[in-house]
Amino acid sequence: MISVKEAQSKIQENSRILNSVSKSVENALDQVLSEDVKSPIHMPPFSQSAMDGYAIGSQGNTFKLVGEIQAGADSSGMTLKSNEAVRIFTGAMIPNGTFAVAKQEIVEKNKTEIRITEKQKHLQNIRPLGEQIKKGDIALPKGTVITPGTAGFLYTLGVNQVSVTKKPNIIILSTGNELVPPGQELSPGKIYESNTYTLKTALKKFRIQVTIKTIEDNYEATKKSIQESLNECDILITTGGISVGDYDFVGKAMEEVGVESIFYKIKQKPGKPIFFGKRNSTVVFGLPGNPAAALSCFYLYVTPGIRKMCGISDVSLEKRTLKLTSDYTKSKNLTHFLKAKCYGDKVAILGAQSSAMLSSFASANCLACLPEGQSEWKKGDAIEVYILP
Predict the structure, then answer these.
(1) Is 226 a member of any domain?
(2) What phi and psi values does residue 221 have, to the nearest 5 degrees?
(3) Which of 74-78, 208-212, 349-353 has the lowest mean pLDDT?
(4) CATH code, 268
(5) Adjacent-strand bridge partners of 171
(6) Fewest Cβ atoms closer than 10 Å to its Cβ: which of 56, 71, 103, 105?
(7) Domain range for residue 191?
(8) What contacts 224, CB < 8 A, 6 or more positions away?
(9) Does residue 285 sit in the same domain as residue 192?
(10) Does residue 218 share a domain with residue 278?
């Protein structure tokens, strides 16, 4: 068995960043830029009015009204004299010679002239050329995640195609003769399959396409399915069949088809019997069969591996240091990850902590980490928690 930190480190060491692909910005949401994006234009591309008002040719009060400039009009050939003004609208190009733009609320107007009631500062209410970014400057650095905000910024620069890191192709293998898909009638001796559906739902946050395969507790079937899946994916996830029961064939099958074991078992609860391995460039996670243990291990180990492969630099779940709302006692030998609920600077450990129980996950928003080497915590003690996505 290895420690939690050792396991997290080995996963990062053995997970590769995937290749790049060119995508439209619209279809690259939540993906990571694989190279810097440089601005192809100045933004704004010309000096423009920041509001509806009047462009004036000098400091002063009274100006001759000589025209109107709407947004989208080309005023590059116009030059204001010192005693002249033009009606102008938000976003419109500033004519040459403009001293400032006076907002319309402080302007008195007749057919031929305007009078300004407040003194204007030079370049007031004008957005200068390249105020936001200059042509050739880095608009978004490599490693930036495409969000609606970053997409909007790219669109304003006229960028519609970007180079992003590919997302991994993931296959989930579920083992267990006792499993029945949700929605079907439950016969004696059977239980509903939850792990693959839970993991598939969790993976939707990454906008990743997932293939689910169900295999019987049969050695040859298990080996064949693992062999085929390794040739088809970047990440293979199995649930169940990794422990030491008479029908736990996953570990033996992985060894026979050439999966290198990086580690097996972590000094933690729940989820001690977790496997991590590799064949060529495909990484393999053998998660426990118990539902809460499988989901905990997914968040703690699979998620950082996926984030690394996607090119995200900050791979870990968000961590916070919070104060316990009650005493807690555990064994010194293992790190415990407990379903918990945090609010403000406090964290409450929930009930139903069995590795077979998902009910506490339904209300949890974090995993409380109580490390090995310590057995007792008191109310008010500070502990580290992992915020669930």
Answers:
(1) yes
(2) -65, -40
(3) 208-212
(4) 3.40.980.10
(5) 211, 236
(6) 105
(7) 4-17+167-309
(8) none
(9) yes
(10) yes
Lowest mean pLDDT among 238-242, 275-279, 333-337: 238-242
Q: And the tokens for 276?
A: 């991590």
DSSP string for 182-220: TTS---TT-EE--HHHHHHHHHGGGT--EEEEEE-S-HH
> CA of 232: how far to CAs of 227, 248, 252, 256, in Å?
9, 23, 20, 18
pLDDT tens digits, 292-322: 999 999 999 999 999 999 999 889 899 999 9
Instruction: State the chain's maximal CA–CA distance in angstroms.
Output: 96
Identify the domain boundary among 165, 186, 213: 165
Residues 138, 66 share a domain? no
Task: Kindly report the pTM of this predicted structure.
Answer: 0.85
The residue among 71, 100, 127 that closes a domain is 127
- Nearest residue to 316 via CA among 369, 352, 358, 383: 369
Which of 136-150, 202-216, 255-269, 308-322 shows the lowest mean pLDDT across its residues?
A: 202-216
In terms of domains, do 180 and 277 share one? yes
pLDDT digits (tens, 9 = 90+) for 99-124: 999 999 999 999 899 999 999 999 99
Query: Per the domain annotation, does 314 fall within a domain?
Result: no
Query: Do residues 330 and 379 both lie within one domain?
Result: yes
Residue 251 is given by DSSP the state H
The DSSP 8-state label assigned to residue 388 in this structure reads P
Helix (H) or strand (E) holding 98: none
Q: How far is CA 223 from CA 30, 46, 98, 241, 284, in A?
A: 35, 64, 77, 12, 14
**At 6, which helix (H) or strand (E)?**
helix 4-14
Q: With CA atoms as reference, report the closest residue to 39 among 128, 150, 159.
A: 159
300 and 342 within one domain? no
